[in-house]
Task: structure prediction
Amino acid sequence: MNRIRSALRRRLLEDLPAGARRVCSRAFVRASIVASLIVAAASLVGCGESVERVQLDAPAETPLWIPPLLLPTVEDGVAHYDLTIGQSQHVYRQSILTDTYSYNGLSVLGPTLRLKKGDSVAIKVTNELDQITTTHWHGADVPAEDDGGPHSTIAPGTTWIADFDVIQQAATIWYHPHAHGSTAEHTYRGAAGMMIIDDDNVAATSLPAAYGINDIPVIVQDRDFTEAGQLDFAIDPGGRGNLDVTLTVNGTIDPFVEVPAGLVRLRLLNASQARVYKLSVHGGKMTKIASDGGYLDIPVVLDDLILAPGDRSEIIVDVGASPIALVDDTFSRVLELRPNGSTSGNGQIPPKLATIDRITESEIVVDRSFHFDRFGDQWGINGALMDMRHVNVRVRFGDTERWTITAETGRHVFHVHQTQFQILSINGETPPPEDAGWEDSVFLDPGREIVLAARFNSYADNDVPYMYHCHMLDHEDLGMMGQFLVVE
Result:
């Protein structure tokens, strides 16, 4: 509650002229805070923290910033990408420069990489921060030495290269730092970017695919700011992790994007520290076409969807003559989509998107259980905290395994590196169609049992491990992570 009062007091004072701030009495501030707490009651989230809700009846004022595409240099059949992580500054609020982390000198976030199945790529990452970091390709099926996890550290002033073949189907994945103990802060300060993988799926040719025009990246992150306008980072050991007051989309507060009328594709990425969003479309409906690991088998019309940290969902919205809005239960408007007078040329979603190779019971040769629980102010899995020196699980290359995930307390997101999995059941029930595709993350409430199956048939490495962990980044940095080897 102290943090709520502090945030409210800060915003109340920021709204006053400088002279009024100087003469404002303590009694006035105290009374204003009480009144604001009463008004804010309608916008309280689960942990009791108020947020800045956006009013739907007023148009958005700020154009959505679209991260640029990073084009490769092709040499001897290899697509080379150069990334540099360093410090920058970004204008979140008018005329205030906020210190951030970013890639390639952007004010915040990083450029979008667009790869294609069958490509050979080499991504060079140079660290210009004053501390160790890494860059992990979240959702990518790559060798362990190229995964960018906590073992692939990049010292200040040095460069690390990940080179691999793109072997997976079309999907929206992303990249972010993954140094043990500092993943949350580096990502929170802005070091993250989207990766788009394309393939030759014929069904996809009728879907919107003009990046930044009718195919829009939507990277949602909540933020809090100090009185000086700087990012106010904190780790919260509580069950929900650290939740912040202000919503940003691609680093923009209350944005709009001008789009052609007709079908528009939104690539949703929750890059927040711990916030879970419940999204819907005001003035229309959404059709989900893809999850973490790629296309669903058929499109699914939804009233709303849950997007937990690390999750991606691709949705199609139909924009008519009037603006529509992507909204969240907590923050209200997330993004206004404003017709620009042109048409997209995409008028129909194909009834069949992909053929998903279902994992069968006969394939499964190993069962494992992973229980998420708390140890004081730390979090662990199966009674253990993350230990860089200890490999928790050894998986035999070529095996298909069934993993049962449960939690005692707190809200969690189970994420596994390298492989995509299929959800077999949620509390004993078959998952709904929108959750029946390939996933690398799944939301886990206390008392919820998730049963999933995964194939480990891409890469083996007897020395370098992959990670499985909670993608509530507070929990991850406080110990809720383990390591597994895929061994011959």
Observations:
- The chain has four domains: 2-43, 63-204, 208-343, 361-487.
- Residues 1-48 have pLDDT under 50 and may be disordered.
- The first strand starts at residue 62 and ends at 63.
- The domain at 361-487 is CATH 2.60.40.420 (Immunoglobulin-like).
